[in-house]
Write a structure and sequence with these properties.
The chain has about 140 residues and is mainly alpha-helical. It contains 4 helices and no strands. The chain has a single domain, classed as Four Helix Bundle (Hemerythrin (Met), subunit A) (Up-down Bundle), CATH 1.20.120.
């Protein structure tokens, strides 16, 4: 049974989906380093699914909700905006990288897959973890008025 959710629940869901992606990415990396291909594949498909669910939820939220103003002051402001700007910029970059990386794996072109995965992985991890940091700063530490 799916619990009733409101629009205001989506930022927390988005943070949870980012956390899920982060954990699965780290596990997937550890599995491939140990040559556990099936476990790596399962984790990476899970990360792909949780990231796709995140993107869907994020777009739904921002289609229906205006931008949330950051209420922090002092040193927190430039820290927040530095994290946010790098997060948003790399989030735009990561989408096509993930698509190309996954497509190469699904087509079993593992040499090219591994080559681009070395670029995709750290950016995807960074976007996932900074998504959580942005959520915590925006909704938990400095909640909107």
């Amino acid at each position: 049974m799916i619990p009733d959710m409101s629009l205001s629940d989506l930022p927390a869901l988005n943070a949870a989906l980012n956390a899920t992606s982060f954990v699965l990415l780290i596990l997937g990396y550890r599995f491939i380093r140990r040559k556990k291909i099936a476990a790596h594949r399962a984790c990476m498909v899970g990360a792909l699914i949780s990231s796709a669910l995140f993107l869907t939820s994020y777009l739904i939220y921002h289609f229906h909700h205006p931008t949330t103003k950051f209420t922090g002051t002092g040193i927190a402001r430039p820290i927040y905006f530095a994290i946010l700007i790098s997060h948003v910029t790399l989030a735009a970059v990561i989408v096509p990288l993930v698509i190309v990386t996954a497509r190469r794996a699904f087509r079993r072109n593992f040499v090219k897959h591994a080559r681009i995965a070395r670029i995709t992985f750290p950016i995807w991890v960074y976007v996932s973890i900074t998504g959580i940091v942005v959520y915590v700063m925006l909704y938990q530490i400095y909640p909107p008025g």
